[in-house]
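User: Hey, quick favor. My workstation is busy. Could you predict this chain's structure for me?
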Amino acid sequence: MSHTQKAYQIIFLLTIVALAIVIAGKFRHSEAATSTPVWITATGDLRGEIKPCGCSADGDMGGLLRRATYLEQLRQAKPSTLYLDLGNNFPPPTEQGRLKVELIQTTLQKLKPLSILIGPNELLYEHSLLDQKLPYLLTNTNASWPVKSFHIEKLAGKQIGMWGYLSPEQIYQNKNDKPLVYPVNDDVLAAWKQQLQKHQLDYAILLFRGNEQELEKFENSQLFDMIVTGNNNDDELNQVLEMKTTTGTFSAVPTKGQGALEGQIHFSGKPVHFEVQWLLDKYQDHPNILPLFSTYNQAVKELFFTNLDRMEQHQQDSPYAGEATCKECHQAAYTTWSQSRHARAFSTLQKINKHFDLECLQCHVVGLNQKGFMSPELTPNLLNVQCENCHGSAKAHIGDPKKIQTSQKPAIQACTSCHKGSHSPSFDLSKYWPKIVHQ
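Assistant: No problem, here it is.
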C-alpha cells in the first residue's frame, strides 16, 4: 500500500471517529433533554380578587403579588415549567373594574403565562380592552379578534400544544348575531383531530371551561393528554377543585385566585397528579409587582375624589340622618351599637390604606352610592356601620316617626350582604347576632 493510500485511510478513519463523537454527543443531549422533568402550573379565576382584602386572617389567601413570588420560586427550582392560566380574571364591569383590568393585564405581562384561556368575565368588556401582548387563547371561535386558536411550545425537547374551549353556556350571545363561540360536537372534534395530527405533538393540553357533559365529549375523544378546567364554583370558602365525568376526574384551578395547581407531565401517558399550592402569606408580596399596585391605588383614590364631585350635588337630598340623630330616641340601642365593632368599621380601612376604595367602603360606611356617604370631610355623620345600614334610611322617619317607618327589610338580612366569602369566613350568624341584637 502506497503512502498516499495510507494517508487517505487514516483521514477516513479519523472522519468516522469524529462523526461518531458528534452523533454520540447529540444523542446524549437529546436523551438528557427528553429526560428533563417538565412541570406544569395553572392559575386563573381571579374574578377581580387582585389581593386579599385583609378583612380576616382566615381568608388571607391568593392575589397577584403572591402569585408572582410563587412563580419565581417555582421557576428557579424547576426551570422546565409550563405556566398556564384559565382566565376569568376580570371583575364585573365598573369604573374601578376597568382599573383592575389594567392592573391584571400589566401584571400578567410580567408573569409571562404561555396561554390564557378567554373566560366569561373577559367577555363582559369590549374586545378592544384585551391586551394584544398577552397570549389569550380560544379555539372554538370564528370571531375576528386577536386571540390565538392554539399555541405550541417546545420545552425539554418536546412539542407541547395548547388548545382552549369556552362553553357557549357561559356567555351571553345575541341570537341575531353570529355566534362568538360554538359548542363541541363530532364535527368540531374531527376538525381539531386533523389540526392536532398536523403538528405531530408529543403532548396536547386542553384548557377547558364548560359543563360535565362537554368535558366528557373531550375525554372520550382522546385528543388530549391532559385537560385542566376552569372553576365554575363561586364560593371561595368551599373550594371545588375537580370536575367529574362518568369515567374520570379532572383538576380545576382554585377559585378567586387563591391558589395554583402544580404537577409533573409524564410523556409516557401517566396522568398528571396535581397538588394545590395555596397562596398563603409564606409567599411575600413580590417587590417588582408592588409598584403596579401603588399606581392602581392612586388611580382608585383619584376615582374616589372624582366621584365626590359627582355626588356632592346629591348631598342636600340625602335620605340618611346618621347615628347621632337616632340616639335621641333609641338610647339603649345606641349604647349596644357603640360598643360593637360596627362603630369602628371605618378605622379598619384606614389602617390598611383602603379608606378610599369604593369596593371596600360599601361595607364600612352608610349609603355609599345612594346619596349617603361621600367622604369623612363631607359626611362625617355617615362613617362606620350604623343604624341605617341595617334599618334603612331614617331621615323621613325622623321627620314624622309615628307615620313613617324605615324601609329596610328585616335587619338580620343585612348581615350576610357584607359578612360573606373571604371577607368574613368565620362569620356565624347564631354566634354574632346576640352581640348586636337590641330593642
